[in-house]
Design a protein that fits this description.
Shape: globular
Number of helices: 14
Order of helices and strands: EHEHEHEHHEHEHHEHHHHEHEH
Number of domains: 1
Radius of gyration: 19 Å
Oligomer: single chain
CATH class: Alpha Beta
CATH superfamily: Luciferase-like domain
Strand content: 15-25%
CATH topology: TIM Barrel
């Protein structure tokens, strides 16, 4: 099977590392993903959390545009209700000028943090999310969404525009993407195993000037190691972090030693594995699991988010994954 593979980076802060080191690890991983033949590198937006370091993908993407040469760069995603459509259009027009033909604008309507985050960012009404998307598309086309704004231009204007995606973990985003004729990215690692969402998108899709046929990307959480056993062990810190969040605790990603020393009960381990949509294994195991996802969801692309207890293990995971699908020798 030949399927485009991409990277979703949440810039996790692992045990013993600082937020600055998390950003440095993102820059290094983007360079490596570019070398390995990955199709896209998307940065996620989160606010006010001690475990992730990137609240401003558009700033980080500007740096990555100068660190890479081939890979598409994008947001996974911009939490649009926090911002004005015009400002987002300007920021991504700037990115398009820095890396013409390589910019993706993925947008979502989640807050990307707690209720306090929405208050601090003076978040707008999420019910305006569909209109904001259409406004941005008009700005990209050199048009304006409101006659009162006649003559307003989202600079820097150019011959190419960012590719716009709608992100989602439920059927709301799928239906909206289908209605607007835009590509859809389903966050399976968040929303759970619901292939009916992407099938709904395909069934309802209306061709547009942006896209003639429906296009689906599915994002999965995965950890790849030389053996199934090692991959399962490396996943323990992620499972422990999820278990703590489920109990109202938030912290940086635990170390591998801390996660192995934790007095796991069978019930806790089963709860974490069942709730956290995480696939682990050797390259052969992961390839089979991803091929099953592609088949079940009718996916055109796969994006992978990997959270590992240190940055070297995370990079190795993406190298092994690329090798499993023969993007380039890892």
């Amino acid at each position: 099977m030949s399927i485009p593979l991409s990277v979703l980076d949440q810039s996790p802060i692992v045990s013993g590392a600082s937020p600055r080191e998390a950003i440095e690890a993102t820059i290094a991983l983007a360079r490596r993903a570019d070398e390995l033949g990955y199709a896209r590198y998307w940065c996620a937006e989160h606010h006010g959390l001690p475990s992730v370091a990137d609240p401003a993908p558009e700033v980080l993407l500007a740096r990555l545009s100068g660190e890479t040469s081939r890979i598409r760069l994008g947001s996974g995603g911009i939490m649009l209700p926090h911002y004005s459509a015009f400002k987002v259009a300007e920021a991504f027009r700037m990115l398009e000028a820095l890396a013409p033909g390589r910019i993706d604008l993925g947008v979502g309507r989640a807050p990307g943090g707690t209720r306090a985050v929405s208050v601090a960012l003076q978040s707008g009404d999420s019910l305006q999310f569909p209109q904001q998307i259409q406004d941005i598309l008009k700005y990209f086309a050199g048009d304006v969404p409101d006659p009162r704004l006649r003559g307003l231009i989202a600079q820097p204007a150019g011959d190419t525009s960012p590719e716009m995606w709608i992100l989602g973990s439920s059927d709301y985003g799928a239906q909206l993407a289908a209605q607007l004729g835009l590509p859809y990215s389903f966050a399976q690692f968040i929303g759970g195993d619901y292939p009916q969402v992407t099938h709904l998108y395909r069934r309802l899709f209306v061709p547009s000037e942006y896209l003639a046929q429906p296009h689906v990307m599915v994002t999965v959480a995965a950890i790849v190691a030389p053996t199934d056993e090692e991959a399962a062990e490396i996943a323990l810190p992620t499972l422990l972090a999820f278990l703590r969040r489920a109990r109202g605790l938030s912290s940086v990603l635990p170390s591998l030693a801390e996660a192995k020393a934790y007095p796991w009960t069978e019930r806790e381990l089963a709860e974490a594995r069942a709730t956290r949509n995480l696939i682990t294994g050797s390259p052969a195991t992961i390839r089979a699991r991803i091929e099953a996802v592609v088949e079940n969801y009718g996916a055109d692309e796969i994006m992978v988010v990997t959270i590992a207890p240190d940055y070297a293990l995370r990079q190795r995971s993406y190298e092994l994954l690329a090798g499993a699908f023969a993007a380039v020798p890892a």
